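Customer escalation, tier 2.

The customer says the design service returned an amino acid string that "doesn't look like it belongs to this structure." They asked us to rerun it and document both sides in this ticket. The original C-alpha cells are below, unchanged.
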C-alpha cells in the first residue's frame, strides 16, 4: 500500500496557508457519501470512513452535508471538498448561493457546486454564485473572512460537458470536475469514467481538472491521471459497500 503521511509530513495537508490545488496534484481524492435512508448515513460514520481513506493515502476528502463536513474536517488533516445535495435530479449539488455559504460555514476548504449551464433554483448564474461566495468568504478576488466563515475558500464546479467546463472556468471556478458527465443528458453514461470528455476538458480549460464519476478501478484512476487530470476523485468504489457488494453478488450470479 502506498501509505503516505505516517509522520504527518507528506499527506499534502492544506490547513492554514497551504495550497489545496498543490496538495492534490496527481493524487487521489476520496468521496465519502451515504445516501438518504442508508445505515451509513451518519456523520460519525462518514468521518471514520474519511479517516480510513486518509490512512490509505487519500490527499483530500469530498463530503456531503453540513454536519458530515464539520465532522470530517475535525477528523482528518487533509483538505475537504464539501457539498450539500438538495434533491436528486436537476440542479442538486450545492444548488444555491445559500447552500454554498453553508458548505463554507461548515469548514470546507473547497465548495463543490453544480457547474452546469442549467438554471439554478435561486435564479443566480454560476458567476454570481461564485462571486457571492467570495464576497462572504474571501478567496481569489474576494475579501477575507465573512462572519463565521473561513477565508480563502475555493470553488469546484461539477460539470457534465465540455461547454459546462468552459463556462464554469469563465465564471471563475478554481477547479472543474467531470462529476456530472452522464447525468445531465449531454454525455453518455459510460460504464467507467468518461475519459473522452476528460481529455477535451483538460485540453480546453485553464484550471485544474478533477476526474470524477464512475472511476471504479485503480487502472481507471491511473488512466484518468494519464489523460491529464489534476487529481482523481473516487467515491462508490471505495466508500459505498452496498454497491461494491452488489458487483460481487452480480458476478457470482453471472450478471456482471
Ligand atoms: C452524480 C452525483 O450525484 N455525484 C455525486 C457527487 O458528489 C456522488 O454521488 C458521487 O458518488 C461522486 O461524484 C463520486 O463518483 P463515483 O461514486 O461514481 O466514484
Amino acid at each position: 500500500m502506498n501509505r503516505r503521511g505516517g509522520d504527518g509530513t507528506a499527506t499534502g495537508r492544506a490547513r492554514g496557508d497551504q495550497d489545496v490545488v498543490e496538495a492534490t496534484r496527481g493524487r487521489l481524492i476520496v468521496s465519502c457519501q451515504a445516501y438518504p435512508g442508508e445505515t451509513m448515513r451518519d456523520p460519525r460514520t462518514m468521518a471514520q470512513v474519511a479517516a480510513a481513506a486518509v490512512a490509505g493515502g487519500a490527499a483530500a476528502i469530498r463530503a456531503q452535508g453540513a454536519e458530515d463536513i464539520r465532522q470530517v474536517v475535525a477528523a482528518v488533516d487533509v483538505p475537504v471538498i464539501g457539498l450539500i445535495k438538495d434533491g436528486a435530479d436537476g440542479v442538486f449539488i450545492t444548488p444555491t448561493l445559500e447552500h454554498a455559504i453553508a458548505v463554507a460555514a461548515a469548514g470546507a476548504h473547497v465548495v463543490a457546486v453544480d457547474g452546469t449551464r442549467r438554471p439554478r433554483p435561486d435564479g443566480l448564474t454560476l458567476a454570481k454564485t461564485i462571486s457571492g461566495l467570495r464576497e462572504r468568504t474571501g478567496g481569489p478576488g474576494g475579501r477575507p473572512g465573512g462572519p463565521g466563515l473561513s477565508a480563502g475558500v475555493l470553488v469546484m464546479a461539477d460539470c457534465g460537458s465540455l461547454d459546462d467546463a468552459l463556462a464554469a472556468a469563465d465564471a471563475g471556478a478554481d477547479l472543474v470536475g467531470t462529476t456530472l458527465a452522464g447525468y445531465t443528458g449531454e454525455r453518455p453514461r459510460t460504464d467507467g469514467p468518461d475519459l473522452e470528455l476528460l481529455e477535451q476538458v483538460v485540453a480546453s480549460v485553464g484550471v485544474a481538472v478533477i476526474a470524477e464519476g464512475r472511476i471504479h478501478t485503480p487502472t481507471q484512476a491511473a488512466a484518468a491521471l494519464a489523460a491529464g487530470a489534476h487529481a482523481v476523485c473516487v467515491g462508490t468504489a471505495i466508500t459505498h459497500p452496498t454497491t461494491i457488494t452488489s458487483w460481487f453478488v452480480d458476478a457470482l450470479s453471472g450478471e456482471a
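Tier 2 assessment: The sequence is consistent with the input. The CA atoms of residues 170 and 238 lie 33 Å apart. The first strand starts at residue 28 and ends at 32. Sent an explanation to the customer and offered a walkthrough call.
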